[in-house]
Amino acid sequence: MSITVVPKVKPPLDPGFVPASLWNRAFQQAVKRSGGGQKLAIALERPDESVSVFHTAVLRHEGEGIAANERYVERLVKFLLWQKGGYKVTIAGDPAIATHIRRVYSPSGERAFDYEFIPEICYLRKMQIEQAPYDQAPAARESSFPLGRHQDGCRIGFDLGGSDRKCAAVIDGQVIFTDEVAWDPYFKTDPQYHYDQINDSLKRAAAHLPRVDAIGGSSAGNYVQNEVRAASLFRGVPKDLFDKRIRPIFLDLQKEWNGVPFVVINDGEVTALGASMTTGHTAILGIAMGTSTAAGYVNPQGNVTNWLNELAFVPVDYRPDAPIDEWSKDGGVGSQYFSQQAVNRLLPAAGIQLPENMPLAEKLVEVQKLMAAGDARAREIYKSIGVYLGYALPQFADFYELSHVLVLGRVMTGEGGDIIMSEARKVLQQEFPEILERVGLHVPGEKEKRLGQAVAAASLPALAKA
User: Fold this and answer.
1) What is the mean pLDDT of residues 203-217?
2) Does residue 225 sit in the same domain as residue 76?
3) What does the DSSP assignment read for 293-360?
4) What is the mean pLDDT of the chain?
């Protein structure tokens, strides 16, 4: 059975885009037309014994239904792995579907990167893919915890992106200094470079404080108790040096700063935390379009979860020849649609020629200059990204309990950000009015867009009790 979708709104520079949100809905409609299909549950367990479970339905796994089921479930597992995280995956339902997932997510399968990266790098475990009858699916055991929102004392906050690093000095909740410095960490092989550059930002903020009581950090990647488990910022460091110098880099920095309370978490979580602190809302998904795509979530209780929330790797485009992510080697994932990489990918279609060896951050600046000058080609880039976003938000709403979405990051700077949000709302109005009605879309002011994460990060540590 072939699932075909025709978007009402197409990205002007990428008309072949097949939104996952539309495809998944078309699949579920096919299931209903078939008489209801058969139930399926996907459970993901993490090392702390928390478990996330997603319940759905698929076609009867026979004939033409096999290929559609395999596509649907494989993409679903991919989304859940990068959203929720987990090292043990249980497919509860038809055993043939579990067999397919076990083949695809294996050392020799198409999803070998995900099979190895998530459990081994993020959790220091081996991947397990198990099968069970639907009525024996594991029970959900979610966990969440309060984090941040501390305002007392003299604090430093920092945010590490792929093209710049930011810092803020905060006294009793009042921001007295912010700074932004360009850097190029991706392919630097010397751990000392990373240490010195991060420390430089801390020193810049500390120079404006009478003392330093606490330091909070926001950075792309996966962090466990301030240890770096995986982060694209440090991808150039050889593994032996990574394990020796990068994994404990923030613990070493804490020692240099007299052991003050020091907390570093994923930048997406800080995005969502900052949005919650600024607006007072909960059930917020924060999406930062920068060098890559960062995301974080504050649940309805106002807490953060232990999920990965790595939307850079979730599939949002289901066409067979979707753009390939150079790291994971998968097609149609978030980083190619909501980041500087997306801008770069759309340049040829827009008819904009820039030097191939120009860094992505500089290419974005050139596009922003063209946009400010009224260049119609640049406008088409932002309109395309807006359409991507408009179709992705309903997909995200299928997996997160949402009342608000905050969108920020370098790509959202300037008039281009307004165009992105306008196009996203247009898609929602035409295709998903129920989402637009119940989920508020927010864009922070220019300063908060670029420096808000560093300020929110400053609130992460609780001060040591006297």
Assistant:
1) 97
2) no
3) EEEEEE-TTS-EES----TTSSB-B--TTPPBPTTT--BSBGGGTSSHHHHHHHHHHHT----TTS-H
4) 93
Domain match, 174 and 108 both: no
What residues make up the domain containing 225? 144-466
Residue 447 has pLDDT above 60, yes or no: no
d(CA 324, CA 342): 11
Sign of CA dihedral 394, 399, 403, 409: negative
Same domain, 424 and 308: yes
Instruction: Give the residue among 19, 72, 86 at the shortest CA–CA distance from 395.
Output: 19
> How does pLDDT run across 326-338, given as a tens digit for each residue?
889 999 999 999 9
| Cβ-based neighbour number of residue 395 at 10 Å | 22
CA 326 – CA 323 distance, rounded (Å) = 9
CA dist., res. 215 & res. 460, Å (int) = 8
Residue 324 pairs in a beta bridge with 331
Terminal CA-CA length for the chain: 67
pLDDT for position 81: 98
Percentage, residues of the chain above pLDDT 90? 79
| pLDDT of residue 164 exceeding 60 | yes
Residue 446 clears pLDDT 80, i.e. is over it: no
pTM higher than 0.70, yes or no? yes
Based on the fold, state whether residues 211 and 315 are members of the same structural domain: yes
* 137 and 157 housed in the same domain: no
The half-sphere exposure of 369 on its side-chain side, counting CA atoms within 13 A, is 8
- Using a 10 angstrom Cβ sphere, with 0-12 exposed, 13-18 middle and 19 or more buried, the burial of residue 396 is buried
Answer positive or negative: Cα dihedral of 304, 310, 311, 314.
negative
DSSP H or E stretch at residue 340: helix 340-350
Interatomic CA distance for residues 62 and 279, integer angstroms: 50
Predicted local confidence at residue 452, as pLDDT: 65
pLDDT at 221: 81
Give 65's contacts (C-beta < 8 A, 6+ positions apart).
Answer: 1, 34, 58, 59
Distance CA 411, CA 420 (A): 9
Number of structural domains found in the chain:
2
Q: Is 328 a domain residue? A: yes
Is 6 contained in some domain?
no
- Cβ-Cβ contacts under 8 Å for 107 (sequence gap 6 or more): 115, 116
Residue type, position 261, single letter: P
